[in-house]
Amino acid sequence: MAKILVVEDEPKISQLITDYLVQAGHDVTQQFTGAEAVEWEQTHRPDMILLDLMLPEKDGLTVCREIRQQSGVPIIMITAKVEEIDRLLGLELGADDYICKPFSPREVVARVKTVLRRLGNQTNQQETQNNLELDESRYIVTFKQQEVALTAIEFNLLNLLFSDPGRVFSRQQLIDNIYQDHRVVSERTVDSHIKKLRKKLNAINPEDEVVQSVYSVGYKLVL
Questions:
Q1: pLDDT in tens, 176-195
Q2: Which CA distances in Å does 62 have to 15, 37, 95, 191?
Q3: Which residues carry this modification: 4-aspartylphosphate (predicted)?
Q4: Taking phi first (over 0 means left), then psi (-120 to 50 degrees means alpha), and beta for anything else, what does residue 148 get?
Q5: Per-residue b or e along 25-47, where b marks 16 or more CB atoms closer than 10 Å to that residue's CB
Q6: Residue predicted with more confidence, 76 or 97
Q7: CATH class for the domain made up of 132-221
Q8: Calpha distance 215→217 (Å, rounded)
Q9: pLDDT tens profile 90-137
Q10: Which of 24, 124, 158, 214 has CB atoms 3.0–4.6 Å from 137's, for a disulfide?
Q11: Using an 8 Å Cβ cutoff, are 94 and 69 in contact?
């Protein structure tokens, strides 16, 4: 059973999503404004957040950005905007998936199940190489004895690079391995996630570039 936070300002939609998730066996809490969502997440630490894009007080992108500053909790964005830039912007801010309105409640349950399974399928192995440690069961990264707060996508990117240090992974290989549901993802989105991952690692170790780019090819991990 996962503890899920639903952030949706339309009570009927929020209740509909909640009813289906509860029926699927999850523990669900509803919040109706962005400010309430950020405060609740900080104190209760849910396993997943379903986050509407258009919210009062703070919109969904602002909420996503603030949560991502301190937590890697999986976030599924819910949006009525269908422009590709909105989808990409949500993903670049750290969302793990998105659902477009109008949607079927069964689709929401299926997306939640997919994201949770993707996280749960990680092995329980804890690996360490040259001051970099990845705990796949808890999605925790420790670099030079300092814990690094990564989003789920950033963790998966690092985990893939970490699986074969020195190997150059093309952007398409990263997309194929990280987004296994075959969604349309641009190389620009991958570059954005890598940029944020690199920034977090460089904050701990500014002397060496751990995640390196290979011009016109892709990225590699150097330990």
A1: 877 765 566 788 888 999 99
A2: 23, 11, 12, 21
A3: 52
A4: beta
A5: ebebbbbbebebbbebbeeeebb
A6: 76
A7: mainly alpha
A8: 5
A9: 666 778 888 888 889 998 998 898 888 776 654 334 445 668 888 876
A10: 124
A11: no
